[in-house]
Structure formats: structure tokens, C-alpha cells
């Protein structure tokens, strides 16, 4: 009789207890201000008869652009203006002209040369950048920095400025990515706790974690600055930088043991 009763108890326990695995996703997002601002200006000299002429003209304008950009950098040792390019390549371009009342494509500057130089400003003076950017913008688009020509076949040298973009340093990026991952794991654990309570799971643990993907507006695809209209008392546009963010999505696999350990669970 005792043996039969013990067998019945064990059998009932085995029926009430169960185990399994569940896969739950979690997301973590963190925000932080940018560490520095990056601004890219490209100097272009084109339609020159000789490579040396194109390089000389590009270098002359690049020197002026460099001096102008240096006014926006702070005293931080990581700030500066970084350049690349400065060599000549063959050049030609297509323009559209009206001939006989029709718009026709025409290739000009055949067998000529161009030279391009890219200058990148990096400044950690984020709060004071707006006023300095207004000065840079006025300078870049002044006659001194733009040497266009009325004839598309003539040599021309000019500067093209991109929009400023906020950036994070490598250290900040790594730190925030780790923080986002930790938040994602906590998010998955919170979801598992809710599931465990509703499913009568009384013991669970993480057995595997995998990353679904990292999404950010910095640093690989930086959020561009917004240019707001100038106020009545301002001499130029206000550059507004949104808070930068990074979001990590992960998938966590939990192993668990459940069963009717309480009267409440037994009634579920």
C-alpha cells in the first residue's frame, strides 16, 4: 500500500512539473550629447589645361578654406582640420544647351584636368559652434571662395560645404553600446519574469544571448544638424543638434522549470 501511494505521489508530481525553453527579445536605448561636430568642405578646380594648373588653383583655395575652418576649432588637442586629395585627374563634364529650340546634352572640357581637396573640421566646441558656423558659411559662399565662370568651358574653382553633423568619440560609442546591450538584457529579463508568473514557471535562467542589430543615428549615419530660421536679434541661422541615440536589440533564450507549485497555479 505504501509503495503504491509513493508511486502515486511521484507520478502526480511528474505530471505537474514541466520544463522547457523560451526565446524572448529585448531592446535597450540610450541617449547622449555629441562629443564633437564634423563639417566637410570640398574644394574643386576643373577644366584646366594642365594638371599643375588644376592642383595650384585647388591648393590656393584649400589654404583659404583651411584658415577659415581653423577659426571654429577649440583648444582641445583632438580638434583640427584634416585634408585629403590634392592631386589631378582627367576631367570632362556634360552640360545642357538649347539648340534649335531643343535641350541638348553637350560634353565640354574634354582633355582637361581637375583637382579636388576635401577638408574636414572636427571641433569639440559643440555649444559655441552655431555662431562660428555662421561665419564659416558666410565665408565659404562669398566671392573670395567661389570662382565660377559664365562659360561652362572655362576653368573654375569653387568650394562646396556639407551640413555639420554631430559625432561621438570611439570611447563614447563603445560605452553607450555596452549600456544599450545591458538595458536590452534587462528588458528581456523583465518580460521573462512576467511570462513566468503567468505560466507558473518558478525557476528560470539565461542560456543564450544573441544580438539582433545595433541601430544609431551616430556615428555611422550621423543625424544632420537642423537649420532654424534666424531670430530677429540674430545675425545668422541657429544650428540645433538633436540628442544622439543608440539602440540595441537582443534575443535571449531562457531555460525554465514550471509546475503547479502553489494553489493559485494549480487552479490555472
Could you please describe the fold and organization of this structure?
A hairpin with a 2-residue loop joins strand 3 and strand 4. The protein is built from 5 helices and 11 strands. It has 2 domains: 113 residues, Translation Initiation Factor IF3 (2-Layer Sandwich), CATH 3.30.110; 132 residues, Alpha-Beta Plaits, CATH 3.30.70. It is elongated. The relative contact order is 0.23. With 268 residues, the chain is of the alpha+beta class. Strands 2, 3, 4, 5, 6 and 7 form a 6-stranded antiparallel β-sheet that branches. A 3-stranded antiparallel β-sheet has the order 1-11-8. A two-stranded antiparallel sheet has the order 9-10.
In short:
This protein has 268 residues and is an alpha+beta fold.
User: What is the global morphology?
Assistant: elongated
Number of strands: 11
What does the average pLDDT come to?
A: 82
Can you tell me the residue ranges where pLDDT is under 50 for at least 5 consecutive residues? Answer: 1-15, 219-238
Per CATH, the architecture of the largest domain is 2-Layer Sandwich
Structural class designation: alpha+beta
Count, helices: 5
Secondary-structure element string: HEEHEEHEEEHEEEEH
Output the CATH class name of the largest domain: Alpha Beta
Give the % helix. Answer: 25-40%
Return the CATH topology of the largest domain. Answer: Alpha-Beta Plaits
Rg: 32 Å
The end-to-end distance, rounded to whole angstroms, is: 31 Å
Beta-strand content? 35-45%
- Biggest β-sheet description: 6 strands, antiparallel
Q: Give the total of domains.
A: 2
Amino acid at each position: 500500500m505504501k509503495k503504491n501511494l509513493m508511486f502515486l505521489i511521484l507520478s502526480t508530481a511528474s505530471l505537474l512539473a514541466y520544463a522547457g525553453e523560451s526565446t524572448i527579445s529585448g531592446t535597450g536605448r540610450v541617449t547622449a550629447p555629441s562629443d564633437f561636430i564634423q563639417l566637410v568642405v570640398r574644394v574643386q578646380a576643373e577644366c584646366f589645361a594642365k594638371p599643375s594648373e588644376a592642383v595650384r588653383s585647388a591648393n590656393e583655395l584649400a589654404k583659404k578654406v583651411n584658415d577659415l575652418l581653423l577659426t571654429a576649432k577649440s583648444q582641445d588637442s583632438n580638434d583640427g582640420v584634416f585634408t585629403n586629395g590634392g592631386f589631378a585627374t582627367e576631367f570632362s563634364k556634360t552640360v545642357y544647351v538649347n539648340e534649335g529650340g531643343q535641350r541638348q546634352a553637350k560634353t565640354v572640357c574634354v582633355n582637361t584636368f581637375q583637382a579636388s581637396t576635401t577638408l574636414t573640421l572636427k571641433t569639440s566646441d559643440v555649444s559655441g559652434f552655431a555662431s562660428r558656423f555662421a561665419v564659416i558659411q558666410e565665408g565659404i559662399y562669398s566671392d573670395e571662395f567661389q570662382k565660377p565662370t559664365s562659360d561652362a568651358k572655362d576653368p573654375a574653382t569653387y568650394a562646396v560645404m556639407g551640413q555639420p553633423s554631430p559625432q561621438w568619440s570611439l570611447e563614447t560609442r563603445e560605452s553607450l553600446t555596452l549600456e544599450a546591450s545591458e538595458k536590452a538584457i534587462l528588458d528581456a529579463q523583465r518580460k521573462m519574469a512576467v511570462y513566468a508568473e503567468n505560466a507558473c514557471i518558478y525557476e528560470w535562467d539565461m542560456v543564450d544571448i544573441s544580438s539582433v542589430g545595433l541601430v544609431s543615428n551616430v556615428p555611422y549615419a550621423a543625424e544632420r544638424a537642423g537649420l532654424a530660421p534666424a531670430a530677429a536679434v540674430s545675425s545668422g541661422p541657429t544650428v540645433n543638434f538633436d540628442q544622439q541615440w543608440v539602440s540595441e536589440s537582443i534575443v535571449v533564450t531562457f531555460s525554465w522549470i514550471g509546475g503547479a507549485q502553489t494553489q493559485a497555479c494549480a487552479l490555472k
